[in-house]
Predict the structure of Protein S100-P-like.
Amino acid sequence: MTQLETAMSILMNVFDTYAGADGKPDSLSKTETKTLLQKELPGLLQAAKNQGEVDKLLQGLDFNGDAEVDFGEFVVMVAAITCACHDRCAKK
């Protein structure tokens, strides 16, 4: 596989690893999302000044307001964090 295909496969596998622990394999509950962030992006949580910031991030991921993070919302989160880390996205 190409590097991009590998990256896409890894994204799918990471999502699938954490989704479904609470019974719905197609979405992440708040608890599952928090666990994913703690295990896969520990530096992000350590950089947060308080738990309120983490909760705000989790709430912001739920674009459709269903109290869960689906795969599309997850990919948007990863893309946004990647842009912030890479510093190539246009500043608005």
Remarks:
- The helical segments are 3-18, 30-40, 42-47, 51-61, 71-86.
- The chain has one domain: 3-86.
- The chain has a mean pLDDT of 83.
